[in-house]
Amino acid sequence: MKNIEFRGTIQLLIIIISDAELTSLHLERIILNSMFNRNLIKSLSLFLAGMLCYISSAQADIAIIVHPNNANNITLKRVKKIFLAKTQSFPDGKPVKAFQIDFEPLRHSFNRNVLNRSEKAVNYYWARMLFSSKAKPPVILKNADHIKTVVANNPDAIAYIDIKDVDESVRVCLIIKAAL
Predict the structure, then answer these.
(1) Cα–Cα 20 to 30 A to 22, which of 44, 52, 107, 169?
(2) CA–centroid distance for 175 within its chain
(3) What residue numbers bound the domain in which 49 lies?
(4) What is the full DSSP assignment across 50-111?
(5) Does residue 157 share a domain with residue 71?
(6) Strand, helix or coil at 173?
(7) Tally of CB atoms within 10 A around 70
(8) C-alpha torsion 167→168→170→175, nearest 10
(9) Alpha-carbon gap, residue 136 to 127, rounded angstroms
(10) From CA 118, how far away is CA 122, in angstroms rounded?
(11) Please, what is the Cα angle at 93 between 75 and 118, to 5 degrees?
(12) Which pTM value belongs to this model?
């Protein structure tokens, strides 16, 4: 009876993670062939549950936000240049100050979908820029509420947040559809 319940649980986990492009058939065979001990199976289940949370967060659409009175239309190319400190101004010539969120899945998604770089590559880039005194990375803020407060009170600010966190205190100038 326990084997049937266990098999059902594994099949449910496999159905849920199938969107993550894991080889579910292979995973099921390994587990059912008892190549893992019971503690490892529990650890694997916790790992998979954590990955599901991470993947769902990483798939969030990203809103590039500015001060409500900022009328600039910004392209993806311009956003990339701003967040890599390759330009210090909005299209209208006014100065820009970039802020980023300290929420790892969203930051990884931004790096991948906007900067076209891995987290490691971004860290390496900023280490080089800081060492050579060419530029400083965007200021990291704790959460979306903090970012919205800073952007709403600073006409020079630009930042990104999850599209679900947008409210009337900021203006969305670009939406990036996230892809894994």
Answers:
(1) 107
(2) 13
(3) 2-58
(4) HHHHHHHHHT--EEEEE-TT------HHHHHHHHTTS--B-TTS-B-EEEEES-HHHHHHHH
(5) yes
(6) strand
(7) 21
(8) 60
(9) 9
(10) 6
(11) 40
(12) 0.68
